[in-house]
Prior knowledge:
mainly alpha
Amino acid sequence: MHPVNWARFGLLAALWGCSFAFIKVSLDAFAPLQLAFGRLLVGALVVGLILAVTKGSFPGRAVWGHIAVASVFGNVVPFTLFAVGEQHTTATIAGVIQGATPLVTLGLAALAIRAEKPTARKVTGLVIGFVGLIVVVGPWRTDGFGSIGGQLACVGAAISYAISFVYLRRFIAPYKIPALAVTAAQLTCAMVITGLITTFSIGWDLPGELTAGPLLSLLVLGGASTGIAFVLMNRLIADAGPTTASGVNYLVPVFSVIVGAAALGESVTWNVPVGGAVVIAALALAEGRLPLPTRRATETPTATQVPPAPNVPTPDAPTATTDRPDRSKPVATQEAC
């Protein structure tokens, strides 16, 4: 992966890592659907403004059907389900479940995209990364795991994210549309769909008191963790593929714990730096930045077992070739063998 994409990768993880705290605070005033609509509204306005300043334009009509599908799986469903999940289960469990997104993406991409077939390196890196993620969040330190319904909501959100990653790469990336234009269209579609669902289901009466805390959290959640973050994600999907891009979910809980310690005064124990190092190493392994020891171990004995004598040309070989009337035929025969 290019160094610029690595920078996008890290910034995206930081933005999404902060989103869990913003969701928690926003839920003091908003219902899950209202929260999803609010962050989509702010995100769409931010991305639309950036698109206008850069003199970009929305995609053509031919791709809007695909963008609408991507907006449902990439925004409407996961935004709502994660908000519901955090009402009924711990943030730690929600983070672990979201961390499973790369593994789900790997399986879906292997079925839907010919160029995204799983390799031993990617599978090993992703599995090790998930183990490191569990070490980071330390589920053994929680007092409870919440309700089954809350956990299932987070599972549904993670699966929905994975579907959107693969769908974007399979049906939208081939059009070579700028990531900013795709994001503006995607967030706009999601905002309209969520607004209609909210209007005809729960309405707009707030369940809590609208104070400065929930309102500011919603604004930052929509502008940074939604608008800017999805520009980065769509660019990563187009450049590095859905499996690599979805690996950002491994680093999201790492940043979430850091933000919790810095902003909320939560304690940081040994498992955070240790698990974070494992996650980073696993991502480097999946990307080919680190060697795969098992592969080297199998290649070395194979090389030593090859007998050198039959494959080494003898000094008489050039003489035998030059004695032939047509020198092109034996050369071609030797190369074909």
